[in-house]
Amino acid sequence: MQSNARPLAKPVAAPSHWLKDTALGMVSTTSFPAIIGTADAMMKSSNVYLVGYEKTGGGHCTAIVRGGVADVRMAVKAGEETAKQFGQFVSASLIPRPMANLEAVLPICARLEEFQQVGSTISSGALGLLETRGFPAMVGAADAMTKAAEITLLAHETIGEGLCTIIIQGSLSNVAIAVEAGMHEAERIGELNAVMVIPRPLGDLERSLPQAKQEPVKEPQPIRLPLNLEERQKELVPAATPEVETPAKRLEEPLEEPLEEPLEKREPLPEPPERRE
Questions:
Q1: DSSP track, 70-88
Q2: Strand 60-67 relative to strand 23-29: parallel, antiparallel, unpaired?
Q3: Where is the composition biased (Basic and acidic residues) (predicted)?
Q4: pLDDT of 141 strictly over 70
Q5: Is residue 42 predicted with pLDDT exceeding 80?
């Protein structure tokens, strides 16, 4: 996928220096697709950095951004409006110049050092997110999306309360077609909770998404044939048919032992003893 990207302006100072003058902005929703769309709106509205997402259970997710006070204020306002449009808004907060102890304990500045080395870019593709209540509906929707258009499955995310989200990537037209097909399949199997299509997402947003763990594909090994393929053919010997014994043949065969010996061959009987008077 070709990327027509443009770098965004970034602070020149080192992270440890400009972090003291930055503000903290947070927007919370009850859906993972909604929080991704909210984070996208916050990042595109002003020059802020997406620190990450905090999943607190029960389907609640919070997008955390850092930047200048004015930029964070604009980002929080844009994120709140976006979350309300989705009907998933919970709360929002702006904290200017948080204390060092707060930053050391809470996950509010974990990825800031990466932003000084990697510039944020805008992708030419699109992201699609579809959230269902129940794992079978999400799997069925993912299968329908891959068969409906040429897209790539990136990963899936669970946030509690049975909410499962499948994340796809591709061109805007393909993502829109795939999401529509996934919606129909999810409603047929179970419950559809939320959908989101984000055109031209920022590079920081794409890097913040969960990544699927894929095992390396093993290349098939060639089959080694034996060098000597000539084998001797075994001669077929017809099997001997067993002879069937008939009554006539049984009469022709002599008996092994005669029933009675001839009289000439019989031993003479012993003479009776003489009587004494």
A1: HHHHHHHHHHHHHHHHHT-
A2: antiparallel
A3: 262-277
A4: yes
A5: yes
Report yes or no: 97 and 21 within 8 Å, Cβ to Cβ: yes
Question: Which residues, 6 or more positions from 230, have their beta carbon under 8 angstroms from its beta carbon?
Answer: none
Whole-number Å distance between alpha carbons of 204 and 122: 9
Walk me through the domains of the chain, giving residue ranges and CATH numbers: 15-117 (3.30.70.1710), 119-212 (3.30.70.1710)
Tokens standing for residue 177: 């077609």
Tell me the sheet residues that pair with 96.
23
Q: Where are the alpha helices (DSSP H) in the chain?
A: 15-18, 32-45, 69-86, 100-105, 112-115, 135-148, 172-189, 203-208, 247-252
Tokens representing residue 246 in the block: 């008939």
**Three-class SS of residue 27?**
strand
Predicted confidence at residue 83, as pLDDT, reads: 92
- Give the whole-angstrom CA distance, residue 5 versus residue 10: 15
Rounded CA gap, 31 and 37, in Å?
Answer: 10
Q: Which two structure tokens, joined as six digits, stand for 48?
A: 């802020």
- In the numeric block, which tokens belong to residue 277? 């008077």
Give the residue from 159, 121, 202, 210 showing the smallest Cα distance to 28.
Answer: 159
pTM (2 d.p.)? 0.64
The predicted-structure confidence for 188-232, as pLDDT tens digits, reads as follows 999 999 999 999 888 878 888 877 665 555 666 666 655 555 555
